[in-house]
Specification:
This protein has helices at residues 36-48, 114-125, 129-136, 140-148, 151-161, 165-190, 195-288, 295-344, 349-399, 416-503, 513-540, 543-574, 578-676, 708-729, 749-761; strands spanning 2-11, 14-20, 24-29, 71-79, 82-91, 96-103, 111-112, 137-139, 684-686, 692-696, 699-702, 737-741, 768-773, 784-790, 796-802. By secondary structure, it is of the alpha/beta class. The strands form three sheets. Strands 2-1-4-5-6-7 form a six-stranded antiparallel β-sheet, with helices on one face. Strands 8-12-13-3-14-15 form a six-stranded mixed β-sheet, sandwiched between helices. A three-stranded antiparallel β-sheet has the order 9-10-11.
């Protein structure tokens, strides 16, 4: 596998970055905390998903980007002969994840889905995300921790890194299957039943089945006899049932006719009452007729007065509107006078605002210049502190050297004069740097005090500016209010003129409310008489219809009485005997009861038969199950033997694999260690607990005998050897690059150069070696360098340096 390029968008501190990866040794250089290791994490996240980040999905999105922004990483790589492009992103408030995989330049995704893309990458590289980090990352802290483990823990850790403990997990699962098979075999053996006894019980059930079948046959013959008796009873009852229905039908008709006569008598009585009322209404109409002559005259007088009253009401409404308008004009004039007085207090406010605004701008510029100067002084202090720390570290390393050591600068053997001269040189240089740092600190304090003074003055002027702006805003509001009042006054004065013109139309209107009330009262009395006349005429008009209706009712009663006589004659002709009908009905019911009781007996016997048949079926199933149980016991024993053999084979395979891996790791580690120490140590061996033994002058010594730098170097060589082994096991499509994170912490310049030279020679085994470090001078020895730069907006970006830029 070879990385081609990567694009990051809103990932951690990267707002938008596109990186193209060359082949060979690549340096990723920058200050601590700037996001160097983030680049490797982004590659792993894009390929394998959120499990690799150990944080919530939303936390990898750049904080300043906001929830609506998309967080996205695109990685292009070559895997064998295939060009693969993987895109993974999260978006929205809930950090909804998505992923796509494209093959060989296609614009249509070959794989979509967060889990599906991760599984496809794991399948193609033959590594899950755990194996990816195991083979790719090597950190200084991890290297030191490996040597510090106990023998047992170190061995377990190496086995885990090499995935050999997976074989132990397989063995554990097989043993679990063996125990489960033994438990099943024991359970089956405890459940075994006697086959002869089961077959004997089956024969008893079959005998009972034959007996019940015989009973059911006899009961069915008796049922046929009862069925014929039921048919004869049904025929006799049907004849009597027909007469019974005809008899009841006629009696119902006679009852209906008697009901019709009763209803007709009631209707005739109501009609006679209505006729009497109509005749009385005729007489009342004759008595009130003379009073209707006054109604038309009073009606005309009332309509004339209604018209005059309407115009009078309109006149009063217009006068009221005129008075309201006049009052509003006076109110608005008073408001206008008040606003004129308030606006005079704001004269000259614009000139004050201009003056204060210019002063605020001047103070801000001065404050910003001081802050820039303060930041520059702090940068100088940081740089000198770094130089001082570096010299102090060199001085500390020098003081820890023994009497037989060589000078780290001239490589001559140390003596007292040499030590005194170097000690004085280091001390003088450190004191000189400290004096410069103290001077810078004094200057920074002076600038900081200036910033505080300017900030306090700026705060006062900004408050003054805000107060003046508030007054200008209030003045502008008063001007708008004045304009609105003047517009309202104009509209009210126009309305008052229009109302005055309208009032002239009603100057001659005269209205007497007492006269109007008198006419209305008399009109209402005559209106009641007129309405009563209409009611009386309506009742009088019904007299002819009522007389005709009474005649029809009397004729209908006579016709119904004739029909009653006819139905009584038919009733006598039927000759229905109710006692005979009831006896036939009772006999039919008793016979049917016997029939259904016999059917119930047959049903019970059939249920008994079904239970027997179920028992037979259940017994046959038990016999079959028992035979299968005996077969399963045999199969279980065979499976236990096979699994036990498999456990022995897996244990042998594990031991064989361990015996091959340890010499292979020792060989690769030795070669790398020899290169990185310029041949000082030729051989490194691993004991049974994977402790590193370094051969010095023909004798193996444990790693804790050597300096911290040499120990870290040996552990680094072992770590690279483990990565090579994992890559080799993954086959031709494995991960062919490694990331080494901060591995120079304990190494001197000579060892740094040896490490870099060895890593360059490893480039034929790894397509790309990514070297992550905060040490700036390392980049001079690297062909390709990505420099991580911190930006002012808290983002970081990548700048290409060295040969790569060409």
């Amino acid at each position: 596998m070879k990385l081609v390029s990567m694009e990051l968008k809103n990932y951690r501190r990267y707002e938008h970055q596109i990186i193209t990866f060359p082949e060979g040794l690549i340096g990723i250089v920058g200050k601590n905390g700037t996001g160097k290791s983030t680049l490797i994490e982004a590659i792993a996240w894009c390929l394998y998903g959120s499990d690799v980040t150990r944080r919530r999905k939303g936390d990898i999105r750049r904080t300043e980007a906001g929830e609506a922004s998309e967080c996205k990483v695109i990685v292009e790589l070559m895997l064998g002969s295939d060009a693969i492009r993987v895109e993974r992103s999260i978006r929205g408030k809930n950090a909804q994840a998505s992923a796509r995989l494209f093959l060989n330049g296609s614009t249509e995704a070959a794989i979509t889905g967060v889990r599906e893309v991760s599984e496809e990458i794991a399948s193609r590289t033959r590594m899950d995300y755990v194996s990816f980090f195991t083979s790719v990352f090597a950190k200084q802290k991890e290297l030191a921790a490996l040597s510090g483990l106990t023998d047992a823990k170190r061995k377990v850790t190496i086995m885990r890194l090499l995935r050999i403990n997976d074989i132990e997990e397989v063995i554990k699962n097989i043993r679990f299957d063996i125990n489960r098979s033994k438990d099943m075999q024991e359970f089956l053996q405890n459940s075994v039943e006697d086959l002869d006894e089961l077959e004997k019980e089956l024969r008893v059930f079959e005998t009972n089945q034959e007996s019940i079948l015989s009973k059911i046959k006899k009961l069915k013959n008796d049922l046929k006899i009862l069925e014929k008796e039921c048919e004869l009873e049904e025929q006799n009852f049907t004849i009597l049932e027909k007469k019974y229905k005809e008899y009841n039908t006629i009696k119902t008709e006679i009852a209906n006719l008697n009901g019709q006569i009763l209803n007709a008598d009631k209707e005739k009585s109501r009609a006679n009452d209505d006729l009497a009322v109509a005749l009385e209404s005729k007489q009342e109409l004759i008595e009130i007729q003379p009073q209707l002559k006054k109604f038309e005259k009073i009606k005309i007088e009332k309509e004339n007065l209604d018209s005059i009253k309407l115009k009078y009401v309109e006149k009063c409404s217009i006068e009221s509107r005129f008075n309201d308008c006049h009052q509003q004009i006076n109110t608005k004039n008073q408001e206008k006078e008040q606003l004129v007085g308030q606006l005079k207090s704001y004269n000259g406010i614009d000139d004050k605002a201009m003056s204060v605004s210019q002063k605020v701008i001047s103070l801000k510029q001065n404050n910003e210049e001081k802050k820039i100067k303060e930041s520059a002084i702090q940068a100088q202090i940081n740089e000198k502190n770094a130089q001082k720390s570096k010299i102090q570290q060199e001085f500390d390393d020098f003081k820890s050297l023994g009497k037989e050591s060589k000078c780290p600068k001239c490589f001559q053997k140390l003596n007292e004069q040499h030590v005194e001269r170097l000690t004085k040189s280091y001390t003088t240089e450190i004191q000189k740097l400290q004096k410069l740092i103290d001077n810078d600190d004094d200057e920074k304090i002076t600038v900081s005090n200036d910033i505080k003074t300017i900030s306090a003055e700026l705060q006062l002027e900004e408050e003054n500016e805000k107060s003046i702006n508030d007054k200008i805003k209030k003045r502008d509001e008063l001007r708008i209010e004045m304009e609105m009042i003047e517009n309202t006054l104009y509209e009210l004065q126009s309305e008052q003129t229009r109302i005055s013109s309208e009032l002239k139309k009603y100057e001659n209107i005269q209205y007497d409310d007492d006269e109007y009330s008198k006419i209305v009262s008399e009109f209402n009395k005559l209106e009641e008489i007129r309405i009563r006349t209409i009611e009386l005429n309506t009742k009088i008009s019904t007299i002819p219809d009522l007389k005709t209706r009474i005649d029809l009712i009397e004729k209908n009663i006579s016709k119904v009485n004739q029909n009653i006589v006819i139905y009584n004659t038919k009733l006598k002709e039927i000759s229905f005997n109710e006692i005979e009908y009831e006896e036939a009905k009772k006999s039919k019911t008793e016979t049917e009861k016997k029939f259904y009781e016999q059917k119930e007996v047959i049903s019970e016997q059939k249920q008994n038969l079904q239970r027997i048949e179920d028992n037979i079926s259940h017994q046959e199933e038990k016999i079959k199950t028992e035979e299968q149980r005996r077969d399963m016991i045999k199969e279980s024993g065979s499976k236990i033997n096979s699994l036990s053999t498999l456990v022995e084979l897996m244990i042998d395979f594990k031991m064989h694999l361990i015996s091959r891996i340890k010499p292979q790791l020792s060989s690769v580690t030795s070669e790398l260690f020899r290169q990185m120490t310029n041949g000082k140590y030729s051989t490194v061996e691993l004991d049974d607990n994977y402790s590193i033994m370094i051969n010095d002058r023909g004798k193996n010594h444990p790693i804790d005998r050597f300096s911290g730098g040499e120990a870290d170097l040996a552990n680094l060589c072992l770590r690279i050897a483990i990565s090579q082994e994992l890559s080799r096991r993954a086959g031709g499509l494995g991960i062919k690059f490694i990331a080494l994170d901060e591995i120079f912490g304990s190494q001197d310049e000579e060892r740094k150069n040896s490490i870099l030279q060895a890593l360059n020679e490893l480039s034929h085994q790894f397509h790309q070696i990514l070297l992550i470090t905060h040490i700036e001078d390392v980049k001079e020895s690297l062909p390709y360098v990505f420099h991580i730069i911190e930006n002012a907006d808290n983002t970081v970006s990548v700048e290409e340096e060295g040969d790569f830029a060409l």
